[in-house]
C-alpha cells in the first residue's frame, strides 16, 4: 500500500453522507476517523438520516448528468446488496415495486409516457399504468422495480463496515459560532485527547444542516418532513402527488406529496410527506399528520383496520439539509491559526434523495482527496 493511501482523513458528521464518505475512503486505502455528535442508533430531528423513508426514486423527471450518475450508482449498489432477496446480508435493503400516482398530468407528460423519465431505461420493469387501472382521482401513474431501505439498519450496517476496516468513530460535539479554522483545530485536539494520531491530511465536511453554522453557509435550510410509523408492512412503496398549487397554500406551502414504504422485517411502515421548506420547528403538525393519514388510505389500504383507520405506532419528523445554491462537493483550503493550510472537502447540501446521492458523492470525495495527494 502506498504512503499516499495511508494518509489520515477526518470526516465530520455521521449521517449517511459522512458514513458513505468514510467507507469509500477506507476502501480506497486511507486511514479514517469520524467525529460526530450523532451516530447510528440516535433519534433526533437534527440527525435526519434515520428519519428518511428511503427508497430509490428520482425526485424530478430531469436532473443534471452528475446527479443522474449518482442515482445510477445507488441503484446498482443496492441491487448488489439485495441480490439474494430481502435483507439477507443485514444491510436493511429489500426489493419492492415502486408505484407513483399523480392527481393531475399535463398533456405533454401523457404524450411522452416513459420517455419523460430519464431513468426509465435504467431501472427494472418501468411501465406507465393503464388509465383503467388507476384509482379514483388519479390521472397518471407509473411503476418500476426499486429498493426500500430500513434506514436505521442501513446506517448501522455501513458503520459496522467502517469499523471492520479499522475506521475510528468518536462521538463529540464540535463548537459552533467559531470560524472553520478554529473548529478544525478543536477537532485535532479531540484526536489528541483520545490518544489518536493528529497528522490530518484532509477533513471532510459532511455535517449536513450543521454546515450553516460550521462554515457560515446561509444558503443552507431545512426541509421538514413528517415521519409517521404505522402498524403492518405495506406490500410495496408508493407515493401520491396532489393536484394544484391550492393544496400547497392550504397546507402552509408544504409540497403536497405523501408516500408509504415498509420497514421490512419490523412489522411497520413509514408514512411521510408534505415537505416544508425553511421550517425549523421540531413539533409535528396535527393538521399535516391528519392529512397524511387520510391521503395514505389510497396508498396502503392493506394496513387499514376493520374501521378503515391506521394504527399509528409513533409520530416524529426530520429536518433534511438542503442548500439553495446547490449541492456542495468541492475542495476548500483553510488558513489555520499557525499559518498552515488545511484542506477541507465539503460534501453537504443534498436535500431530497440524500441516501441515493450518498454513494456517488462519496466516490467524488475520494477523487478530490486523491487529487490533493497528487498536487
UniProtKB/TrEMBL annotation:
Annotated FAD binding sites: 207
Positions of the FAD dependent oxidoreductase domain: 9-368
Any one of the GO BP annotations: D-amino acid catabolic process
Keywords annotated in UniProt: FAD, Flavoprotein, Oxidoreductase
Cofactor (UniProt): FAD
Stored Gene3D superfamilies: D-Amino Acid Oxidase, subunit A, domain 2, NAD(P)-binding Rossmann-like Domain
Membrane-crossing segments per the record: none
Protein residues bound to D-dopa: 259, 320
GO CC terms, sorted: cytoplasm
Family statement drawn from the similarity comment of this UniProt entry: Belongs to the DAMOX/DASOX family.
Stored PANTHER family: D-AMINO ACID OXIDASE (PTHR11530), D-ASPARTATE OXIDASE (PTHR11530:SF11)
Protein name: Nucleotide-binding domain-containing protein
Organism: Lepidopterella palustris CBS 459.81
Amino acid at each position: 500500500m502506498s504512503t499516499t493511501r495511508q494518509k489520515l482523513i477526518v470526516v465530520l458528521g455521521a449521517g449517511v453522507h459522512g458514513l458513505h464518505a468514510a467507507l469509500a475512503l477506507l476502501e480506497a486505502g486511507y486511514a479514517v476517523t469520524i467525529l460526530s455528535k450523532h451516530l447510528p442508533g440516535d433519534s433526533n430531528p437534527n440527525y435526519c438520516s434515520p428519519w428518511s423513508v428511503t427508497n430509490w426514486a428520482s425526485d424530478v423527471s430531469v436532473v443534471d448528468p452528475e446527479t443522474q450518475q449518482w442515482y445510477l450508482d445507488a441503484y446498482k449498489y443496492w441491487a448488489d446488496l439485495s441480490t439474494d432477496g430481502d435483507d439477507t446480508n443485514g444491510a436493511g435493503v429489500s426489493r419492492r415495486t415502486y408505484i407513483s400516482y399523480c392527481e393531475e398530468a399535463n398533456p405533454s407528460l401523457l404524450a411522452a409516457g416513459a420517455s419523460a423519465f430519464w431513468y426509465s431505461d435504467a431501472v427494472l420493469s418501468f411501465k406507465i399504468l393503464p388509465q383503467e387501472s388507476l384509482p379514483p382521482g388519479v390521472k397518471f401513474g407509473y411503476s418500476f422495480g426499486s429498493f426500500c431501505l430500513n434506514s436505521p439498519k442501513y446506517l448501522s450496517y455501513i458503520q459496522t463496515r467502517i469499523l471492520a476496516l479499522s475506521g475510528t468513530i468518536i462521538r463529540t460535539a464540535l463548537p459552533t459560532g467559531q470560524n472553520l479554522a478554529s473548529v478544525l483545530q478543536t477537532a485535532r485536539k479531540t484526536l489528541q485527547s483520545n490518544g489518536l494520531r493528529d497528522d490530518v491530511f484532509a477533513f471532510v465536511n459532511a455535517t449536513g444542516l450543521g454546515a450553516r453554522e460550521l462554515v457560515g453557509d446561509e444558503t443552507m435550510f431545512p426541509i421538514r418532513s413528517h415521519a409517521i410509523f404505522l402498524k403492518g408492512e405495506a406490500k410495496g412503496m408508493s407515493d401520491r402527488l396532489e393536484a394544484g398549487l391550492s393544496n400547497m397554500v392550504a397546507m402552509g406551502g408544504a409540497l403536497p406529496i405523501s408516500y408509504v414504504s415498509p420497514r421490512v422485517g419490523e412489522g411497520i411502515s413509514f408514512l411521510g410527506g408534505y415537505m416544508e421548506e425553511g421550517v425549523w420547528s421540531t413539533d409535528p403538525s396535527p393538521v399535516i399528520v391528519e392529512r397524511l393519514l387520510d391521503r395514505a388510505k389510497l396508498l396502503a389500504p392493506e394496513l387499514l383496520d376493520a374501521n378503515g383507520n391506521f394504527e399509528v405506532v409513533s409520530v416524529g419528523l426530520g429536518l433534511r439539509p438542503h442548500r439553495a445554491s446547490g449541492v456542495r462537493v468541492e475542495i476548500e483550503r483553510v488558513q489555520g491559526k499557525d499559518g498552515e493550510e488545511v484542506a477541507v472537502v465539503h460534501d453537504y447540501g443534498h436535500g431530497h434523495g440524500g441516501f441515493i446521492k450518498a454513494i456517488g458523492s462519496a466516490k467524488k470525495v475520494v477523487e478530490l482527496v486523491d487529487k490533493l495527494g497528487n498536487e
